[in-house]
Each structure stands twice: as structure tokens, then as C-alpha cells.
């Protein structure tokens, strides 16, 4: 009897299980046991577990979340439809034993609701229950609510050591642990040591939901570096989480909150999530950045030089498809005439600029990549206080554009960007080391800022906190230094002003991936044994450019690569700690999502690795 262990039973692990269930009859003829290993609740996992603040919400709307394949998904395994979050909520899941607040939230959900993470936990648990209830004959699932601490080989099989339980002896292992904790980086350790010497407080990058914020005293000034989703969680927990309330767009303090000063190199919070629907339907992407187009390019690739113009043209195609199809009164050409000319021109040329200017009279209706990437560009003031209304004006305008139906092209671009992300990740192994070190982090940062923003109501709350004086922004170019009096924050937007001083600094972001500093004993053991390896970008002349901290895997199926670069044919890994990036563990329906396609490829490779599977597959 064959067996598989999936280490990590959150949405990534459950997604692999669902795809194994879908393909097992085709690829494996015998009985099969699948073991899910996770100390956190199976289905939800750590990030989406029920045991967290009820104030924390998803940054996706109920209608935009699914774990199931649908007719749009192009994969080798069978399509197995299932309910999106919204469809699950409409169907009325069994709520017996649920707390009253979650029942009330479920009853109030609409397609455009941003559900709480605790309610998402129930949806994900329901997905797992559905998968297990519909397992084909001969496939069994076992859940182990504990931690995997090691992975070794014995007599051709895989041995997974468990904390407090007997080891599992299996034929294949999938590591699906999601974001991994790591010990602080050397610079962070130095800052921790220096802060302790001076009696200061520093919180290094980590999951904000697990941070001990009791060290922050009411009324004191706190510096926060980072303006992404971890920052949004920090704001929720430090203000509403301490009893503050938002009433009619104003913040009513509890008296227990600090005063937050926040910034980052870009200086702007992530763009708000669009709160409207496409009027012209989903843009037919990919149109320009297709696999055929990228495969025809000479190798190795430079992302900015070779792919950049096609990437921009593809994203802009999504924008203009929605503008012309959804807002014909705002354009001066027919879609057919525009597209014929657009298709033949290169992005960024004077001819393309002339076409866009003549076809789209209002500059606000033209896509502006510089404005999307650096929305605070050009902001400047003599003092931090004078900067704040300028910052609020730009944040409020961004929120307006992501709510006002006039600006649905933002959603068209967002939709096309998901396609672009998948294609960039597909060919990332063909990039020069220099381009991978320089361009991939920039692209990931841009993608995150545009595609992974907070719900609009969170942006409203941020604006209310700023209006009330509890939250101030440094603007672009934030820099933090340490002297005898504490932390000092400056920015390029207030070049001549006095620095902000504080005795508390919070790095409001996840820890950078780091295989050599991982807190996961299983991965640490594989690395020490040479059975796993970190991606190190080395130039053509042998100079080390960057250690990415990512676990090297075979792009096609996630097979783990050892220190010599050889694939471990019975060991696989998926998730943000690997060299194959996918845009989230769950996805929007109808998107032919990269995450679902990759789950399918990995699951089928796992099944084919089992003893006896080759004969069945042939």
C-alpha cells in the first residue's frame, strides 16, 4: 500500500490533495493513504486559522475566492468544480457549533464583502471536508495535528519524523508549509542587539498576527517600516484592536493607542482593491506575452529588456480592452480600429504614445505605469505635518478610482497582470542571474502593490487615522538610523525637516525567505544533509549576486533539487518559500489560475512517483 505525506494542511496542501483525488484513478491503480501534517487546523492552516482577531479581514471579495478548478482551467487532470466562497455562503453551510458573531457575518455576506479571516477559515475547512467526503475508492486521508521535524530515507521510502507521534513511512512527500519563519537576518540581529543596549524596542519582520504588540505603550510614537498588508494588520491591531472605533468616517480613540509614523522606500500604501466588476468581460489574455512569444526569444533573457515591453503591452491591453468595451464614450476610436493599430506597434515608442493620445482624450483614462508604481512621486513639503494633507489627497484619489465605475480599466489591468505574473514565473529560470537579481524583486514589488492591496474600507480607516493625527506618513525614501537617543526616521519628501524620533521600531513585513536561517527543522535538516539547496544567483564570471533564500525546485513539478542540482523524485515542495512563485494559494473563479494549474502538475507528478504508477499511466 502506497502513502503520501503532505506537510502543511492549509490551502496549498489541501489544493494538492484535491488534485491528487482528481487524478488518482487515472494515474495510480492501488490503494493509497495521504497524510496531512500541520499543527494548525487542517484546511485553514496557520494564516487562515480561526484563532485570530475577528477584526482581521481578507483582501479579496467573497465572489473572488475559490479553491476549485472550473472550465477556464487548462490542466491535464480532470476538472472538479466546487463552490466559490460566495456560492458556499449562499448555499448555507451547517453552522451548528459556530459562534454567534460568525453566524451573523455569514448571513450578511454579499459578493462584494471582504470576509473576515475567521470566516475564510470556515470556507477552507469546508473545502477539505468536501474533498474528503468525495474521495474515490481506495484513497484515504489521515490528519496529524502536529509538526513535522525531519525527513530522511529508509529502504527506498521517505520517513517523516513527527513531534509527539510515530514517524510516517511514505513513498512521496510534498512540503506545502507556506510562509516560513526564519531567525532574523544579520542586519536585524545587529539592530536587535543595538536596541537592547540602549533600552529600545525593535520588532523584526514576522507574521503581524503573531507579534507581541503589548510592548507598545499608549500614547507613544512608534515607527513602522513597510506599507503592505502586514502594515494594514498592524494598524488594525494597534487601533481597533485596542478599542478604537470608526464612526461616520471618523476615528474615535480609546486612549490606549500609540501614534504611528509609517513609511517605506516607495512611501505609499498598496493600491486599494477594485470594488467593481468588469463591464467588457474578462480580457482575452494572454494576447502579446504568450508562451509562444516568450519561447521564441533568444536565451538567456533579460526581464527588463526582453520581456518588459511585452509585459507592459499585455497589462495595458487589459486596461484598454475594458476602457473601450466598457466606456465607449471615453474613447475616440472603435475597438477594432484601435486594436489593429495597437497590435502592430511596440510599447513605449512615440507611435504608440501618439495612438494612445489620439484614441483616449483624457490622460486620466490612459494607463500610467509610473503613477501605478510610484503614486507618491514628486511629493515634497518643508515639514512632516505639511506633508500629511498631500499624502491623504493621493490616497483618497486612489481609493476613489478603485470604487468609481468610471475607472474599471484598473480591474482590466489587474486581470491581465495575473496572466503576466504566471508567464514571468514560467520563464524565470531562463533569466540571466543579473536580471533575476535586479529585475525580479522590482517586478514582485510592483505586482504586490497593485494586485495585493487592502479593501477600500481599510483605506478609509487609514485616512481617518491620519486625519485624527494618530497616523502620519513619512513619504517616499524613508530611512531609519539609530543613535544614542533612539531611532530617527527621515525621508526624501521632507529633506529639510526634523527627523521623527522614537524608542520603538517595527518592521511591518514578513521575514525575507531564508533557507539557511529557516526555523523549520525539516528544511534545515535537508539543507545540512545536502538534500535541499538554496537558490544563489551567480553572474557569468562567477560573482555571487544574491542569495534569494528560496528552496530550489524543478519548475515543471516542484521536485526538490539537492545540493548538486539533482531532482529528488519523491520529494516535492510548493509555496512562497520555493523558486516557483504562484499568485496566492486560492484564486478568482474563471481565471485559468496559475495556482490551480501548478497544483495539478505537482499532484500528477507525485502520483507518477509512486511505485507501480508508471505501468498504470502507460
Quick structural overview:
With 618 residues, this protein is α/β, with parallel strands linked by helices.
Percent of residues in β-strands: 15-25%
Write down the Rg.
Answer: 25 Å
Q: How many E strands?
A: 21
Secondary-structure arrangement, i.e. CATH architecture of the largest domain = 3-Layer(bba) Sandwich
Could you give the order of strands across the largest sheet? 3-2-1-7-21-20
Number of contiguous helices: 18
The CATH topology of the largest domain is given as FAD/NAD(P)-binding domain
Structure explained in plain terms:
By secondary structure, the protein is α/β, with parallel strands linked by helices. It folds into three domains: 2-182 and 513-617, FAD/NAD(P)-binding domain (3-Layer(bba) Sandwich), CATH 3.50.50; 186-270 and 470-507, FAD/NAD(P)-binding domain, CATH 3.50.50; 291-451, no CATH class. Helix content is 36%, strand content 17%. The protein is built from 18 helices and 21 strands. It has helices at residues 11-27, 85-91, 100-108, 117-133, 186-197, 229-238, 291-295, 303-326, 335-344, 350-359, 369-373, 384-401, 409-427, 433-451, 456-467, 521-528, 594-608, 613-617, and strands spanning 2-7, 32-37, 139-144, 148-154, 157-162, 165-170, 172-175, 201-203, 221-225, 245-247, 250-252, 259-263, 471-473, 479-483, 486-490, 500-502, 504-507, 534-538, 544-551, 559-561, 567-573. The strands form six sheets. It has a six-stranded mixed β-sheet with strand order 3-2-1-7-21-20, with helices on one face. It has a five-stranded parallel β-sheet with strand order 8-17-9-12-13. Strands 4-5-6 form a three-stranded antiparallel β-sheet. Helix 1 (11-27) runs parallel beside helix 4 (117-133) and helix 1 crosses helix 17. The radius of gyration is 25 Å and the shape is globular.
Amino acid at each position: 500500500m502506497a502513502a503520501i505525506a503532505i506537510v502543511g494542511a492549509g490551502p496549498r496542501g489541501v489544493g494538492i490533495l484535491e488534485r491528487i483525488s482528481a487524478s488518482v484513478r487515472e494515474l495510480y491503480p492501488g490503494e493509497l493513504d495521504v497524510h496531512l501534517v500541520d499543527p494548525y487546523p487542517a484546511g485553514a492552516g496557520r494564516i487562515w486559522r480561526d484563532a485570530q482577531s475577528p477584526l482581521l479581514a481578507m483582501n479579496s471579495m467573497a465572489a473572488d475566492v475559490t479553491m476549485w478548478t472550473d472550465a477556464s482551467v487548462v490542466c491535464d487532470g480532470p476538472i472538479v468544480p466546487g463552490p466559490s466562497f460566495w456560492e458556499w455562503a449562499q448555499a448555507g453551510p451547517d453552522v451548528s457549533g459556530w459562534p454567534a458573531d460568525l453566524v451573523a457575518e455569514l448571513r450578511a455576506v454579499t459578493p462584494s464583502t471582504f470576509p473576515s479571516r475567521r470566516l475564510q477559515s470556515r470556507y477552507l475547512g469546508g473545502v477539505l471536508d468536501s474533498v474528503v467526503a468525495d474521495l474515490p475508492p481506495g484513497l484515504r486521508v489521515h490528519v496529524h495535528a502536529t509538526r513535522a521535524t525531519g525527513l530522511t530515507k529508509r529502504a527506498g521510502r521517505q520517513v517523516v519524523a513527527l513531534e509527539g507521534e510515530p514517524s510516517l513511512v511514505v513513498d512521496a512527500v510534498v512540503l506545502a508549509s507556506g510562509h516560513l519563519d526564519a531567525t532574523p537576518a544579520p542586519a536585524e540581529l545587529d539592530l536587535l542587539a543595538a536596541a537592547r543596549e540602549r533600552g529600545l524596542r525593535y520588532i523584526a519582520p514576522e507574521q503581524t498576527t503573531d507579534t507581541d504588540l503589548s510592548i507598545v505603550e499608549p500614547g507613544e510614537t512608534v515607527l513602522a517600516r513597510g506599507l503592505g498588508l502586514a502594515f494594514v494588520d498592524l494598524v488594525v491591531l494597534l487601533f481597533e484592536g485596542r478599542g478604537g472605533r470608526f464612526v461616520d468616517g471618523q476615528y474615535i480613540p480609546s486612549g490606549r493607542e500609540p501614534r504611528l509614523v509609517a513609511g517605506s522606500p516607495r512611501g505609499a500604501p498598496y493600491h486599494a482593491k477594485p470594488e467593481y466588476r468588469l463591464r467588457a468581460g474578462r480580457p482575452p489574455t494572454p494576447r502579446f506575452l504568450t508562451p509562444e512569444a516568450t519561447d521564441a526569444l533568444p536565451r538567456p533573457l533579460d526581464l527588463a529588456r526582453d520581456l518588459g515591453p511585452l509585459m507592459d503591452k499585455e497589462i495595458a491591453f487589459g486596461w484598454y480592452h475594458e476602457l473601450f468595451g466598457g466606456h465607449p464614450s471615453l474613447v475616440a476610436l472603435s475597438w477594432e480600429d484601435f486594436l489593429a493599430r495597437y497590435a502592430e506597434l511596440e510599447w513605449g515608442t512615440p507611435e504608440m504614445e501618439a495612438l494612445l493620445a489620439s484614441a483616449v482624450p483624457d490622460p486620466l483614462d490612459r494607463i500610467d505605469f509610473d503613477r501605478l508604481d510610484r503614486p507618491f512621486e514628486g511629493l515634497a513639503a518643508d515639514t512632516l505635518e505639511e506633508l500629511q494633507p498631500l499624502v491623504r489627497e493621493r490616497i483618497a484619489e486612489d481609493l476613489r478610482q478603485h470604487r468609481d465605475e468610471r475607472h474599471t480599466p484598473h480591474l482590466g489591468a489587474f486581470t491581465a497582470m495575473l496572466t503576466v505574473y504566471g508567464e514571468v514565473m514560467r520563464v524565470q529560470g531562463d533569466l540571466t542571474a543579473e536580471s533575476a537579481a535586479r529585475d525580479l524583486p522590482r517586478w514582485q514589488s510592483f505586482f504586490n502593490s497593485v494586485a495585493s492591496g487592502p479593501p477600500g474600507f481599510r483605506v478609509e480607516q487609514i485616512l481617518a487615522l491620519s486625519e485624527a493625527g494618530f497616523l502620519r506618513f513619512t513619504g517616499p525614501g524613508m530611512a531609519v538610523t539609530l543613535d544614542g537617543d533612539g531611532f530617527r526616521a527621515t525621508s526624501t519628501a521632507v529633506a529639510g525637516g526634523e527627523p521623527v524620533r522614537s524608542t520603538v521600531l517595527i518592521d511591518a513585513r514578513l521575514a525575507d525567505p531564508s533557507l539557511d536561517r529557516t526555523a523549520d527543522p525539516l528544511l534545515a535538516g535537508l539543507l545540512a544533509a545536502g538534500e535541499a539547496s538554496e537558490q544563489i544567483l551567480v553572474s557569468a564570471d562567477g560573482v555571487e549576486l544574491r542569495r534569494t533564500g528560496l528552496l530550489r525546485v524543478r519548475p515543471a513539478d516542484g521536485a526538490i533539487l539537492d545540493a548538486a542540482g539533482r531532482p529528488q523524485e519523491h520529494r516535492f515542495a510548493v509555496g512562497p518559500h520555493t523558486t516557483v512563485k504562484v499568485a496566492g494559494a486560492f484564486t478568482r473563479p474563471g481565471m485559468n489560475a496559475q495556482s490551480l494549474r501548478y497544483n495539478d502538475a505537482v499532484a500528477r507528478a507525485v502520483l507518477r512517483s509512486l511505485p507501480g504508477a508508471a505501468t498504470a499511466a502507460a
